[in-house]
Design a protein that fits this description.
With 357 residues, this protein is of the alpha/beta class. The chain has twelve helices and 14 strands. A hairpin with a 2-residue loop joins strand 6 and strand 7. Bound molecules: 3-isopropylmalic acid (IPM) and magnesium ion.
Length: 357
């Protein structure tokens, strides 16, 4: 097949990890007889520096026309003083909104040879395989009214947590469908003991569940969920939740796997999908050839399977990652005594070498 992929490396470590994933995808193309054309464009802080805005119209147009978008990361201390409306993070939110990417899939799976890299005990994390299904274009991230206004004696900052039936319905469907291909369990995370938006969330999820009698559905409050994730993470299969709760819980789930540098993601909707690591631009380690490229390379695998239905090719990438870890190669974030410490480029090269048709 032939596909055009927008490569938006962005800021910080994004500049180092995206090229590694692009190299792997090109090799997959050669091995399996596909043509992947990459078109680079500015996004985030580097776009602000060059054009004044985080998501230039050209970049958005490219993303919309492409068959898939590969994104690195956006943001950094340099742009933190800017107004919210033109911060690097706006590019990410703008892409999600403009591409209609309402579902964000974040698989947290532990590679058993990394169990000792986790801050939790091996017996707690061994065997975890969780899929966080995060709603991505609604909730408090996009709800209106929002703003900061003057009031007597100071200011008032406000955002709105809001969900419609339809927004909840479509994300619930994604979760139940995903569960069908896995262990057939969905845990819906809300705060229905306090929030009206959560009350509706729970009601709609229960309603959608009627179409999925083969799936076991349970509900959990977000605070308890945060606790259960570190207490007994193996109880989770698919977790479905709001934009904000999903943001927080997916970082927590990522750490169970040893490092946030391991977790890929797919953002899907009705049109072009976007594939990116869940970690950020990590300005503290950027430019030093330290960052772990695995999350981005694994995101490339998700792209192959979700955007192009190339499951065999996606599995080849996953096998290459496993083989590389089995050979003992580790970036700093997942390094444990006795293993071979390598940099971003060396890790990318090792995975490339292990890629087999
Ligand atoms: C993520 C990130 C983003 C989010 C930021 C960078 C806007 O934390 O993708 O999880 O909050 O969604
Ligand atoms: Mg986040």
């Amino acid at each position: 097949m032939k596909a055009t992929i927008a490569a938006l490396a962005g800021d910080g470590v994004g500049q180092e990890i995206v090229p590694e994933a692009v190299t792997v995808l090109k090799a997959v193309g050669r091995t399996f007889g596909h043509t992947f054309d990459f078109i680079e464009a500015l996004v985030g802080g580097q776009a602000i520096d060059k054009t004044g805005v985080p998501l230039p119209p050209d970049t958005l147009a490219l993303a919309k026309q492409s068959d898939a978008v590969m994104l690195g990361a956006v943001g950094g201390p340099k742009w933190e003083g800017l107004d919210y409306s033109i911060r690097p993070e706006r590019a990410l939110l703008g892409l999600r909104e403009q591409l209609g990417l309402y579902a964000n899939l974040r698989p947290a799976k532990l590679y058993s040879m990394l169990a000792d890299a986790s801050t939790l005990k091996r017996e707690v994390v061994e065997g975890i395989d969780i899929l966080v299904v995060r709603e991505l274009t609604g909730g408090i991230y996009f709800g209106k009214p929002k703003g900061i206004e003057k009031i007597p004696g100071g200011e008032r900052g406000f955002n709105t947590e809001v969900y419609t039936t339809e927004e909840i319905r479509r994300i619930a469907i994604v979760a139940f469908e995903a569960a069908r291909k896995r262990r057939k369990k969905v845990m819906s995370v809300d705060k229905a003991n306090v929030l009206e938006s959560s009350e509706l969330w729970r009601r709609v999820v229960i309603d959608v569940h009627k179409q999925y009698p083969d799936i076991e559905l349970s509900h959990i409050y977000v605070d308890n969920c945060a606790m259960q994730l570190v207490r007994n993470p193996k109880q989770f299969d698919v977790m479905v939740t709001t934009n904000m709760f999903g943001d927080i819980l997916s970082d927590e789930a990522a750490m169970l796997t040893g490092s946030i540098g391991m977790l890929p993601s797919a953002s899907i909707g009705t049109k072009t999908g976007m594939y990116e690591p869940i970690h950020g631009s990590a300005p503290d380690i950027a430019g030093k050839n330290i960052a772990n490229p695995i999350a981005t390379i694994a995101s490339a695998a998700m792209m192959l399977s979700y955007a192009f239905k190339l499951d065999k090719e996606a599995e080849a990438i996953e096998r290459a990652i496993v083989a590389t870890l089995e050979q003992g190669y580790r970036t700093k974030d997942i390094h444990t005594p006795g293993m071979t410490l390598v940099g971003t480029r060396e890790m990318g090269a090792a995975i490339l070498k292990n890629l087999k048709g």
